[in-house]
Design brief:
Elements (H helix, E strand, L loop, with lengths): L3 E7 L5 H6 L4 E5 L2 E8 L2 H13 L4 E7 L5
């Protein structure tokens, strides 16, 4: 699996703890839902990324790959 950027949309606003934990990735708000995006290097990395988001107590609404240059 080549490097690919993914966007993960979650259903609630991020707490300060979640924002600190996600400091290494991009976080933006789209239509009041936070969108977390980051570069994933392999399939296992995607699973780890999603588990980290869920471990923060965030409910994942959608996951989608995006163009490499989109941020």
């Amino acid at each position: 699996m080549p490097d690919r950027r993914y966007e993960v949309r979650v259903a609630e606003r991020l707490s300060d703890v979640a924002q600190s934990a996600l400091a290494a990735v991009d976080v933006t708000e789209v239509a009041a839902d936070p969108v977390i995006s980051g570069l994933v290097r392999h399939e296992e990395g995607l699973h780890q990324f999603l588990m980290a988001v869920q471990d923060l107590g965030l409910r994942i609404v959608s996951v989608q790959p995006v163009a490499p240059d989109r941020r």
